[in-house]
Write a structure and sequence with these properties.
The protein is mainly α. Helix content is about 75%, strand content about 0%.
Amino acid sequence: QFYHTGHNDQGLLQLKTNQIDWAKSTLEKVLEINPKNSDANLFLTQTLYIKGNLEGAKNKAIGLIEDKENFLTSQQYSTLQEMMYKNNELDLIESMYTIYVEKIEIPANQNLITIEALVELDKINQAEAIIEKTNLASSSLSKSEIAKLKALSAYVMYNNNKKQEGLDAIAEAEVVDNTVAIVHYLKGKIMKE
């Protein structure tokens, strides 16, 4: 047990200090001993993304998402989702949400990434359902996250033939925080249509 934890920590430290090849080697050793170690798999996924091995990273991510024995914690879910978002793995974000929504408590700010992925995938109805759920937990969101949620909601409303509500909501998003880039991006998409 100590070996796994110690080497996990060592691999993470190597990853954080940009010793990518060492991190990869250390984490692979941990996984030789315990292939189901979620932390080592997660850190190795991150290492593979950093090294540019996108296919290997994607396969590791899929393995983590679909593992029926070892579920990710909320923190691991958030970390993996951030990695996938940065690498434009929008379909994987959708899959992960679908699998985990009933298994763990997904923080409201992580729902924003899922909503944004669904909007980009043009899955407006699925996005709307998550928006409703996230609105209920919006007290935990920062001012900029609330603006982002309102902007995403505006775009979804506008695309669900609620044009005026969408326009009103995008104006509300600007009032909440007009420094959030996605607010302006989505406003531009609405105005373009």
